[in-house]
Amino acid sequence: MLYYPGATQILQRDRSNDKTDIDVIHENHRFLWTAADEEDKNWAKELAKKYWDKLFKEYCISDLSCYKDNKIALRWRVDNEVITGKGQFSCGNKRCSESEGLKTWEVNFGYMEHGEKKNALVKLRLCPDCSYKLNYCHQKKEVTKIPRKQKQIKKSSKKHKRKHKRKYKKSKHGSSSEESSNDEDEEDEDNSTSKEGSYTHKESNVWSGPVSIPEKKTREDEFEEYFEDMFL
Q: Most buried among 76, 127, 180, 183, by the most CB within 10 A?
């Protein structure tokens, strides 16, 4: 059979139904994955979810050409835009390259996906002129960063509450021992001289509470300081 010209085509495999990994990812792509999407997972969906997890999804790109009709298009950034900082360090409008006075807006993105209507909140960085276009019909919510002082105040208040609870528990269990120790300190102060009195006064200050050790910055705090102005 293979002797005749053209007979070798019988041995060629049909490649019309072949799919690469990127084809599988495109077919099972989700703009945002929900708990319902992850329930009935198969190999193709799991591959698409792993690819989606590796994407940098902090900011979006918008098309504001039809802003007067209240029509705003949104999409994720492509790899070149992530590298150049488009939509993060420069305006997120695809027709604008302004990098001064950028503001971060929280936008409700409604879209159709696999025949189902979905909504998601996304972040959009825009210059003042493009921000006016975005809020032309409806005022959007501006995302502002919390000052670092307020963050430190919140952390210190939480730590203070924890310490107060611990002291309160200790005072319940060890009130009698504290009273006896206070009586002994008073007797020692009455019998000591002026020099010894100053010494015991210092000693009592030492034993009055735990030594205040300066808190060391964790690696997370250092990253927060570094990226404070970069991410909103």
A: 127
Distance of CA 199 to the CA centre of its chain: 52
> What is d(CA 79, CA 52) in angstroms, rounded to the nearest whole number?
13
Please state whether the predicted TM-score (pTM) of the whole model is above 0.90: no
Three-class SS state of 16: coil
What are the residues facing 75 on neighbouring strands?
A: 61
DSSP conformation class of 99: -
Q: Do the Cβ atoms of 211 and 128 come closer than 8 Å? A: no
Q: Which residues pair with 73 in a beta bridge?
A: 63
Question: For 116-150, how does the pLDDT look when each residue is reduced to its tens digit (9 = 90+)?
Answer: 888 888 899 999 999 999 999 888 888 876 655 55
- Cα dist from 138 to 7, 70, 72, 101, 112, whole Å: 68, 8, 12, 21, 22
Rounded to the nearest integer, the mean pLDDT of the chain is 75
